[in-house]
Design goal:
It is found in: Mitochondrion matrix; Nucleus. The chain is mostly beta strands. The protein folds into three domains: 65 residues, no CATH class; 164 residues, no CATH class; 134 residues, Immunoglobulin-like, CATH 2.60.40.1470. The protein is 6% helix and 44% strand. It has four helices and 25 strands. The strands form five sheets. Strands 1, 5, 6, 7, 8, 9, 12, 13, 16, 17, 18 and 22 form a twelve-stranded mixed sheet that branches. Strands 19, 20, 21, 23 and 24 form a five-stranded antiparallel sheet that branches. β2 and β3 form a beta hairpin. The relative contact order is 0.16.
Length: 375
């Protein structure tokens, strides 16, 4: 199987679930049900055949970026693997993999590890088993960030500053966490195929290697040094009325404030419209339970100041936020209220997830940049 990678200068969202001609001409990406990629311009049943392809549908300019490779059904992608994100369409490169426990409330996979008990009042008391799933830490091509900013935040990695200002949060632009099935691998002869300030600090080109981009010592040291706040360990997923919500929580560390300890977490959330009907997110409703015994309710319009529309053409929206507790652990769960075109509303469940602390080992002094303050 082979396919061709092309790129539109004005990037549109890459629709994973339908036949999309705007990004890959005549390429069907109905990979949720069939992971193969079909292309009317290429003989995709001939594994040896690989061709470039470009076109200009809808008057948009397309540019060739490389040649598709066969997506891996087993195993994992290595550091230096180039890819297109199958949902958001950006160019990226794999830095390193994470092995996460996926708690999927839509299926009952073979048990690998039991999910911790849910807090009182959390919806759905059924036990959910975790299965191991591969995610990747990746760099996003900065040329694509402006085109995906309305669908996905490009500052998915944040951390606490290790200095006197305990309220300061910092973000590293252009880093993301990508699920294995969202990787559409390709190769390129360009020695610097990804534009990002960290690319040449972390990777170097070696033509004899496959993939030809290998990690520098800087990347390995950065991963080891900042492992505590980069690590992805648990992923929670649930679907309500064709809207799938995926949550990835991260522990960020503890800070002292007003003679007490404050524990911080960030959480990345992706909403995906798996159906045909256009819907718009209008409200959020959170319940936050702390080990100290408090139960907080948070309601508000939209998320991160937006009320995203989820359509067949642009089915996904991804964002990050933060929460703090005056206890080392807790739980969060809730719902989103979405509106249909006819004006009716329905609620979508946010799967319960744990907020667990660990050894406070926040980053200090080894941040190769770029990063910006969110305080």
């Amino acid at each position: 199987m082979a396919a061709c990678v092309i790129r539109r200068t004005l990037l549109s969202t890459f629709n994973k679930y339908n036949s999309v001609s705007r990004v890959l001409q005549h390429v069907s990406l109905n990979s949720r049900h069939n992971p193969s990629v079909s292309c009317s311009s290429c003989d995709l049943f001939n594994v040896q055949q690989k061709r470039f392809m470009s076109s200009r549908p809808e008057g948009k300019v397309l540019e060739t970026v490389g040649v598709f490779e066969v997506p891996k059904q087993q195993g994992k992608y290595e550091t230096g693997q180039l890819f297109l994100h199958s949902v958001f369409g950006y160019r990226g490169i794999v830095l390193f993999p994470w092995h996460a426990r996926l708690y999927d409330r839509d299926v009952s996979p073979p048990a690998v590890e039991s999910k911790p008990a849910e807090p009182p009042g959390a919806h759905g008391s059924k036990e959910v088993k975790g299965k191991t799933h591969t995610y990747y830490q990746v760099l996003i091509d900065t040329r694509d960030c402006p085109h995906i900013s309305q669908r996905s935040q490009t500052e998915a990695v944040t951390f606490l500053a290790n200095h006197d200002d305990s309220r300061a949060l910092y973000a590293i632009p252009g880093l993301d966490y990508v699920s294995h099935e969202d990787i559409l691998p390709y190769n390129s002869t360009d020695q610097v195929p990804i534009q990002h300030e960290l690319f040449e600090r972390f990777l170097q080109f070696k033509a004899s290697k496959v993939p030809p981009f290998v990690p520098r010592d800087t990347l390995q040291a950065w991963q080891e040094k900042n492992h505590p706040w980069l690590e992805l360990s648990d992923v929670h997923r649930e679907t309500t009325e064709n809207i799938r919500v995926t949550v990835i929580p991260f522990y960020m560390g503890m800070r002292e404030a007003q003679n007490s300890n404050v524990y911080w977490w960030r959480y990345c959330i992706r909403l995906e419209n798996m159906g045909e009907e256009v819907v718009q997110l209008r409200e959020r409703h959170w319940r936050i339970f702390s080990l100290s015994g408090t139960l907080e309710t948070v309601r508000g319009r939209g998320v991160v100041g937006r009320e995203p529309v989820l359509s067949k053409e642009q089915p996904a929206f991804q964002y990050s936020s933060h929460v703090s507790l005056q206890a080392p652990s807790g739980h969060m769960w809730g719902s989103y209220r979405l509106e249909r075109p006819n004006g009716t509303f329905f609620d979508v469940r946010i799967p319960p997830f744990s907020l667990e602390s660990k050894k406070d080992d926040t980053p200090n002094g080894f941040l190769p940049g770029p990063f910006t303050s969110l305080a």
